[in-house]
Amino acid sequence: MERFDYGIIGGGPAGYTAAILFAKQGKSVILFEKDKLGGTCLNRGCIPTKSFLHSSDLYAQLKNPNSAGISAENISFDFSEVIKKKNNTVEKLRKGIELAVKNNGVKTVYAEAVIKDKNIISDGSKDFYAENIIIATGSKPREIKGLEFDSKFILSSDDILNLQKLPKTVLIVGSGAIGIEWTRILSNFDVEVSLVETAEHLIPLADIEVSKRIERIFKQKGIKYYTNNSINKISNKSVFLNTGEELNPEIILVAAGRIPNNINKECNMVLGDACGEIQLAHYAIQQAKETALGIKCNKSQIPSVIYGEPEIAWIGIREQEMDENCKKYILPISALGKAWCDDATDGFIKIITKDELIVGAHIISKEASSLIHILLPAIQNGIRVKEMKQLCFAHPTYAEGIGELLLNI
Ligand SMILES: Cc1cc2nc3c(=O)[nH]c(=O)nc-3n(C[C@H](O)[C@H](O)[C@H](O)COP(=O)(O)OP(=O)(O)OC[C@H]3O[C@@H](n4cnc5c(N)ncnc54)[C@H](O)[C@@H]3O)c2cc1C
Fold first, then answer.
1. Do domains 2-141+258-293 and 154-254 have the same CATH topology?
2. Which of 206, 245, 360, 383 could disulfide-link to 210, CB 3.0 to 4.6 Å?
3. What is the pLDDT of residues 20-59, one digit of tens each?
4. Has domain 154-254 been given CATH number 3.50.50.60?
């Protein structure tokens, strides 16, 4: 029987990162993947959606370029080309991962792995001995009772990636990262989107002021949303909400969270989405780094990004968790010259402090996904406000908004 120091099940961000890091330390590693390397993130999640986002943003900008002094006629899109671009991006990145895994000497087995015993993994035809077994088997879309996926009318986040033609109307169930991101993609592509959310406000995991501002932006844009609500019944493709509204979407996208695929509850090395903790690719990677390199990972300091329009990003304490020693400082994005040049003045930067430290940051803005990283060192490494104030930010940028806000503290 072939023997390995590490047997890793699942080739997503958690699994391939752990495999590469252990292999770099001279450990022998076998990695099992039943589908494609890159996992949900590369094949059905983070990357394909961002490729769609890019195409849809470009189309939306070209459709309405007047405010920038540009005119364009006969703007259209070919969805099959949008899909092709997405597939090329995913394949290119997958080749990179396959190469990195191979070049680091990891043995990859493409098969569904089963743990047969404490140290034995089977690929269905052959057994392998692993001194340590790591489960990194990811997660799958959560089904809601009465809204079971049929891949035709009721779609999961996997199904929607397989659409060959865009519908005219979509109802999205759930206003988390996936729901908000698809709202942006589909709205850009002229699809009429409605959202239904059981919580009191959109994006229930966000700072409450962020949720409320996003609701205001949705209202301005005419995107219909129903909070404190859910689907009561579906009859002949007519959807009835609990509050009585009748909607007639061509499809329903259910984006109501994900369920961990933990194939062995007794295994104590479980990484990434399979843990059922924070289901984000960078958390999966961070956990792999913690396991392989001993780099500590503070669960309460993991940044979140939502690719809405504008982008939303946050880390740390939210408004609803502030105590009497916390203070908040807010700068509207409209205070920034760059925002006016870009016609992107919606949003704010909010910093929450406690004593001399920054303990929370919440940003709605173009480039929020990058801006949040300026505040990560302050929160994750405990750099004091006094030291942050010494930073010189370039002008004109969105980042200088953080510099300006720091001066108010
Ligand atoms: C639509 C969508 C958009 C997303 N966007 C973002 C984003 O922008 N940013 C972000 O941080 N996160 C995003 N995520 C979440 C991100 O994709 C996951 O957090 C991340 O993929 C988790 O990594 P993982 O390695 O734990 O699991 P996965 O990536 O799910 O990988 C698990 C792998 O294990 C394999 N596997 C399972 N069981 C077995 C078995 N028995 N034998 C062999 N192989 C097996 C699977 O085939 C899969 O390839 C998104 C998710 C979705 C669905």
1. yes
2. 206
3. 999 999 999 999 999 999 999 999 999 999 999 999 999 9
4. yes
Q: Looking at the domain that runs over 2-141+258-293, which CATH code has it been given?
A: 3.50.50.60
Residue type, 240: F
pLDDT digits (tens, 9 = 90+) for 216-237: 999 999 999 999 999 999 999 9
| Nearest atom in ligand 1 to 157's CA | 1
Integer Cα distance of 365 and 311 in angstroms:
5
Q: Where are the domains of the chain?
A: 2-141+258-293, 154-254, 310-407
Residues in contact with ligand 1 (CB, 6 Å cut-off): 9-15, 32-35, 39-41, 44-46, 49, 112-113, 136-139, 157, 178, 261, 263, 272-274, 279-282, 284
